[in-house]
């Protein structure tokens, strides 16, 4: 029986930064066929490489920044977004629903300190919805290495086989499955369907 949900943050709880860039680019008129993640106007081979584990996220971010500079756009990604407006309200609603059902929940993030600041654990307005917050910046390995998943399960007092992991990158889902967790790939273009798949797993 699944007793805990392990949530990724960027891409799942928050819209991925390229989704926000696409919105800005359309509003400001500079999109013009630029590859920008899974919701951009043209296929993004670099994003696909990251999603499949052939490129790490830091390198992907650098490449996006280079693309922005090539069209004369500010490439300082970490300061250009108001993250409080990027939260996925339907995902938060499900977190609240699962909390009422006494399902334990933990955030497992690779990059929260970079996007939300070094004190995010104490300043993040949603921290009280979760039983634990695990930031791999404090570990020796990142997803999809086994260690972060095992630490997330330990943080909520569950074994890996009692957990369902939710992430927008297939490579990270495979990492969770390798340690025995069930996994739900969160399709950023199908939020409703992704949450439905999670609910089906939890209701089994």
Mean pLDDT: 92
Q: What portion of residues belong to β-strands?
A: 5-15%
Number of domains: 2
Number of helices: 10
Main beta sheet, described? 5 strands, parallel
CATH topology of the largest domain: Rossmann fold
Give the N-terminus to C-terminus distance in angstroms: 8 Å
Q: What can you see in these coordinates?
A:
The protein contains ten helices and five strands. By secondary structure, the protein is of the alpha/beta class. It folds into two domains: 130 residues, HAD superfamily/HAD-like (Rossmann fold, 3-Layer(aba) Sandwich); 64 residues, no CATH class. Strands 3-2-1-4-5 form a five-stranded parallel beta sheet, with helices on both faces. The longest helix is centred in the first third of the chain and has 14 residues. It is globular, with a radius of gyration of 17 Å.
Short structural summary:
With 204 residues, the protein is of the alpha/beta class. The protein contains 10 helices and 5 strands; from the N terminus they run βαααααβααβαβαβα. It has a 5-stranded parallel beta sheet, sandwiched between helices.
Write the layout of secondary structure elements.
Layout: E1 4-7, H1 17-28, H2 45-51, H3 57-70, H4 77-80, H5 89-100, E2 104-109, H6 112-116, H7 120-123, E3 132-135, H8 146-155, E4 163-167, H9 170-178, E5 182-185, H10 191-203
Parallel strand pairs: 1-2, 1-4, 2-3, 4-5
What are the key terms here?
11% strand; 204 residues; alpha/beta; 5-stranded parallel β-sheet; Rossmann fold
